[in-house]
Amino acid sequence: MDPAPRRPSMADVASRAGVSYQTVSRVLNEPGIVRPDTRTRVQQAITELGYTRNRAARALKTTRSSLIGMLTDGSALFGPAETTTAIESAAREAGYSVLLTTVGAHDDCEREIGAELLGSGADGVLVVAAHEGMVPAVAAVARSTPVVAVSAQAPRAPGVEVVGVDQQLGALQVIEHLARTGARSVVHAAGPQDWFDARARLEGFEHAVELHGLDGTVVGPGDWTPRAGYDLANDLVREGLPDAIFAANDMMAIGVLHALHEHRLRIPEDVAVVGFDNTLGAEFQVPSLTTVSQPFADLGRLALQRLLCLLEGHELPPGTPSTLPPRLVVRRSTRPERTH
């Protein structure tokens, strides 16, 4: 029987590159102090051998695991999924691995989820899809580990830093656009109010309609799904349609579009529709959906940068924002803006 394959070691890399063990260590940890030709030889040997760093051994030496915990609720929604992907990519670029942990609806958060993350040896924790149901687990972890939440508002847990996209600004951009198209009445199909982002979009809507003197009404809350948007739109058809419907996310907006099509209403001539998130496929709806795009890739990098600064005791570079601006993407589900 052939012996089991052995994982390549730093000593193997040193032998292949014709350098010392210490030189390989410098290339891995402080590459800038190694001569370029030597660094190239070591990196080539690493590639040829398929060497990967032993994080457990490194943690014993440095008390740092290069492991980031990521706490989510397992949501398949576009925004949380895109944010999670962006953070994983940014962490990999920074030399960190990510341990993804999901908070289920009926989990014993404090004992099981918090203990799992802390027991993993994660250097810090990022929270995605922040809502009220995640607060107990967040609070349990934040007692002993740096935590950054990707959210419009801070979870009610001490010691938690927050980065996010300005959801209120996104709602303001929607209302400003609708006002310039001539809309005088707007209904906001709100998202679930235990979600911090949904609250912020609602608050932004209420402020914006007052600022622009529009007739604003809130219906719902819905649960982020097309069915919720569909049901809310059917209720509006029976009760009387506004000039425009602003759905809390694109999934709800898709349900709104479907209900309006069933009633043979013209979009945007009879009623305009706006979503939020710029979900993959929003531009292929009929008509293409006006929506708010969030900079998820930048958000992932910002969240990781904030966490690494906490871990290393550094301040963020001057001018680094804690909140990123969204961008309104105007398509054919809203009327053209007036030029006078």
From TrEMBL:
GO terms for molecular function: DNA binding. It holds the Pfam family Peripla_BP_3. The keyword Transcription regulation applies. Residues 315-340 are annotated as: Disordered. InterPro entries: HTH_LacI (IPR000843), LacI/GalR-like_sensor (IPR046335), Lambda_DNA-bd_dom_sf (IPR010982), Peripla_BP_I (IPR028082). Keywords: DNA-binding, Transcription, Transcription regulation. Gene3D superfamilies: 3.40.50.2300, lambda repressor-like DNA-binding domains. Residues 8-62 form the HTH lacI-type domain. This is LacI family DNA-binding transcriptional regulator.
